[in-house]
Amino acid sequence: MAAESHMSASCKVILAGTVAKSLQDEVTEGLSQLETAPSLVGFLANTDPGARMYADWTARTCRENGVKFELREVDREDLEGHILTANHDDGIDGIIVYYPIFNDRQDQYLQQITDVSKDVEGLSHQYIFNLYQNNRFLDEEKVQKSVLPCTPLAVIKILEYLRIYNTILPYGNRLFGHSITVVNRSEVVGRPLAALLANDGACVYSVDLNGVQQFTRGEGIKKKRHEVVEKEGWGLQDCVPLSDVVISGVPGDSFKFPTEFLRDGAVCINFSTEKNFGPAVKEKASIYVPAIGKVTIIVLLRNLVRIVQNKKRRSASSTAMT
Known about the structure:
Oligomer: single chain
Strand order of the largest sheet: 1-2-12-11-10-6-7-8-9
């Protein structure tokens, strides 16, 4: 099993920094292959402390990796214009917006106007479409890889680090046999995460205030992409005991995960800025990851490298065709 940072009698606590270090070599190698240091611009248009912390972490990690980063603090009513200007600025390789801004459908609109070729968050329509359709490339030649949303991808990378993904199985099926509960069905994190996990072969129970939905690729994972089934009348008490992995990301400090529903030896991951799991989680879980922020930031840089690489490949393809 991967190295741990803290231990209790029955539970290994894995810190995000440990997982991030395992991804650092890939990012360093990718950056070294670029002709110039990439440029990332972040837009902060709210007073959310989580967004501010994310922006600060971004700045520090970019600085440590030689990536040019500029944080632009703007009024939310002016954000649309700033994004459009950045879309047309050839000196900017990547754009990140620190959400939430309006906390409604207007946030989704802002995600869609970000140029797909600069969207390091993976929230543009093309990327989200590919995610839900289980399309892993942007082109028919399968040269340009699609970009996945940072936080869901960070959870995937943590599960890979913990060897929940079975590398004996074919790529794309490596979660087959696992049942996973995800407590959060937001359009930015929870729903895309459930889809990613199901597309990789897991049986996923997606939970929010409205109930439980089951995401799977059908019996024997024979379908190309996931399907969704409503589990009428279900709650955490029904799906958590079935799950060997439980992932929670409920915002705010009022929610505390009911650890009495956990099966012995479950893997528990918290992606909320608050601690969804109380101390009792260590009495039931075999592995507990209390936060994922540092992994999310290194994944952000990984996405930045990918969109710059995709840009070069598109340019090379266009040149070859002329």
